[in-house]
Write a structure and sequence with these properties.
- The chain has about 425 residues and is an all-alpha fold.
- It folds into 3 domains: about 5-20 and about 25-115 and about 155-230, Hypothetical protein af1432 (Orthogonal Bundle); about 120-155 and about 345-434, Orthogonal Bundle (eoxyguanosinetriphosphate triphosphohydrolase fold); about 235-340, putative deoxyguanosinetriphosphate triphosphohydrolase fold, CATH 1.10.3410.10.
- The chain has 19 helices and 4 strands.
- α4 (about 65-90) packs across α14, α10 (about 180-185) crosses α11 (about 210-220) and α16 (about 345-375) packs across α17 (about 385-390).
- It is globular and about 75 Å long.
- Pfam families: HD.
- InterPro entries: dGTP_triP_hydro_central_sf (IPR023293), dGTP_triphosphohydrolase_C (IPR027432), dGTPase (IPR006261), dGTPase-like (IPR050135), HD/PDEase_dom (IPR003607), HD_domain (IPR006674).
- It comes from Litorivicinus lipolyticus.
Length: about 425
């Protein structure tokens, strides 16, 4: 892979057509990508979606939107620092600047959670639970096994690519029409479910055509029919996300009372150089956490660049490499969070509520779509609940002439686009009307 191709400004215009855009105006093409994401409806709705801790009256705690903004800031810095290193090695082509890498990583990082359903990872698990249930499997029985597997393994990452390439403002015609560079950098797992070595995947079959065009255009290494090697800048987005949530989840847990400040202090202080300790002595809890966060993220930046230099050749060759922060304090922070934060009683209650609400909503929507599909083949009549959905939610439902797989996907577009409070309100309203 080479940087001149990997940082392509071309945008999708039609199948097989990627149109070149110049940077003659003050606002460069990669800045346009960032702007299109931040002004989108899908991004704005992240403000009412859970990051880790359930939405509360405490405005200090992060939502998906504030987390995404923070990751984009760290990603921009990581990208610029990586760009400076590339320039120092003579690896940055003429006409490209370190800022270009920073802006591409910033845009991809801004969108990295844009496909997450309500209640975050608990919502992903709830959607998978529904499609793996006997009722869900009865609904997907007419589909090919590969598509059933995809629905049963619902991924917010793949849904995010769908949001960027298939939804507003150009529905089924390129979506936001981002540059190829930003799309490639966004896709953390550039393969479909059937090509995944583990459960994680980043591209649905419905978006494979447009993504594979982008990947070919970028010169990404094809590993099999439905699998590419990662774009090198994906590692920077991943590092920025790890840097933010590993440190900030600790901070938010103190704010929510999930852990005590003394626990957080005892965890963070040994990870900070002793020379920095004096600057932290005597600070109030909020001030300590603020300063410690900045010190740790600065340290992670230098460790990221060192790892990039070590693995650079392998990354460009499309070979798998460890996470760029694998040898940093991130692992210790993640382990603490898994043991002390992610299993809190409030978090468990949220997962239970999310599962129940999502199951009921998906049950009703897919049930109506499935009955309509069977009725079209004169094999089934409509139940009362299906008639209600087809009558009262008509404007939100996919067209009957679409393949059943596409209808289920559009139902998921609708449901995964909901905010946490809207989902609960919608589910409650459905239960009252049934």
């Amino acid at each position: 892979m080479n940087w001149e191709s990997l940082l392509s400004r071309h945008r999708w215009c039609a199948p097989g057509e990627w149109r070149a855009r110049d940077d003659s105006s003050v606002r460069k093409q990669f800045h346009r990508d960032y702007d299109r994401i931040i002004f989108s409806d899908a991004f704005r709705r992240l403000g009412s979606k859970t990051q880790v801790h359930p939405l509360s009256n405490n405005d200090q705690v992060r939502t998906r939107l504030s987390h995404s903004l923070e990751v984009s800031c760290v990603g921009r810095t990581f990208g610029m620092v990586a760009g400076e290193w590339l320039a120092s090695q003579g690896e940055l082509p003429a006409g490209l600047h370190p800022d270009d890498l920073g802006t591409v990583v910033q845009a991809a990082a801004l969108a990295h959670d844009i496909g997450n359903p309500p209640f975050g990872h608990a919502g992903e698990d709830a959607i998978r639970f529904f499609f793996r249930s006997p009722r869900g499997r009865a609904r997907t029985q007419p589909l090919a096994q590969v598509l059933r597997d995809e629905l049963e393994s619902f991924e917010g990452n793949a849904q995010g690519l769908r949001v960027l390439t298939q939804m507003d403002p150009h529905r089924d015609a390129g979506g936001m029409r981002l540059s190829a560079a930003s799309l490639g950098t966004f896709v953390k797992y550039p393969w479909t479910r059937d090509a995944a070595a583990s459960g994680k995947y980043g591209v649905n079959h419905s978006e494979w055509a447009i993504f594979s065009e982008a990947a070919e255009h970028l010169g990404m290494v094809r590993q099999s029919a439905n699998r590419f090697a990662r774009h090198p800048l994906v590692y920077l987005v991943e590092a920025a996300d790890d840097a933010c949530y590993s440190v900030i989840d600790i901070e938010d847990a103190v704010e929510m009372g999930v852990i005590e400040f003394d626990q957080a202090r005892s965890l963070l202080l040994p990870l900070i150089e002793r020379a920095e300790h004096a600057a932290l002595d005597g600070l109030a809890p909020h001030q300590f956490l603020y300063r410690a966060r900045g010190i740790l993220i600065d340290r992670l930046e230098s460790q990221m660049v060192a790892a990039l230099a070590r693995h650079y050749d392998a990354m460009l060759a499309g070979q798998p490499v460890p996470d760029l922060l694998a040898d940093s304090p991130v692992g210790e922070l993640k382990a603490f969070a898994r043991a002390n934060i992610y299993q809190s009683e409030v978090k468990q209650l949220t997962q239970s509520n999310a599962r129940e609400a999502l199951f009921n909503v998906l049950d009703l929507l897919t049930g109506a779509l499935h009955e309509r599909y069977l009725a079209g083949r004169q094999r089934h009549g409509y139940s009362a609940s299906a008639r209600w959905v087809l009558t009262h939610l008509k404007r939100s439902l996919p067209a009957a002439e679409l393949p059943l797989y596409s209808q289920y996907q559009q139902a998921l577009d609708y449901v995964s686009g909901m905010t946490d409070p809207y989902l609960l309100s919608f589910a409650k309203g459905l239960q009252e009307r049934r």
